[in-house]
Design brief:
Blueprint lengths: L1 H17 L18 E6 L11 E5 L2 E6 L3 E7 L2 E8 L3 E8 L4 E9 L6 E7 L1 H8 L3 E2 L2
Parallel strand pairs: 1-7, 4-9
Antiparallel strand pairs: 1-4, 2-3, 2-5, 5-6, 7-8
InterPro entries: DUF2846
Organism: Leptospira selangorensis
Protein name: DUF2846 domain-containing protein
Length: 139
């Protein structure tokens, strides 16, 4: 029994260590492209649901495979943009993107019985800047 528990513990420890993000630490994008809005899509580094990842799409176009503790900036044309994410469950949010504005779209996971369900939330600049500061750039 001790060997089984030790094996499970080692597997979980090794698995958690290999799921750490490896990109550059968050650094704000200095210039917003002409006639576009800047949307940071990020996912805070949390233990709960850390093994679950999902693709975030904007108006049906895949943007990023969002994993635990990562972010990526996107320059988006102004207008209503619908962001979606899906595992077994799905999430959808529409944001009115304005030229020259900065937005923070937070992705997360609610842990379910089989797999986590994605959540997408637009957060304020203050919350977004604080939470994204711990994230690493997704390549």
């Amino acid at each position: 029994m001790k060997i089984i528990l030790l094996t499970i513990f080692c597997f979980l420890f090794i698995n958690c260590e290999t799921m750490q993000p490896t990109g550059k630490q968050f650094s704000p994008t200095s210039d917003i492209q002409n006639n576009k809005g800047l949307v940071y899509i990020y996912r805070p580094l949390l233990f709960t649901g850390s093994g679950v990842y999902f693709t975030v799409k904007a108006d049906g176009e895949s943007l990023i495979e969002l994993t635990n503790g990562t972010y990526k900036p996107f320059f988006i044309k102004p207008g209503e943009v619908t962001f979606e994410a899906e595992t077994i469950g799905s999430a959808k949010i529409t944001i009115q993107v304005n030229s020259g504005e900065v937005y923070y779209l937070k992705g997360n996971v609610i842990v379910g019985p089989l797999v986590g369900k994605p959540i997408l939330t637009q957060v304020s600049k203050e919350i977004g800047e604080k939470e994204i500061s711990e994230c690493k750039l997704k390549n």
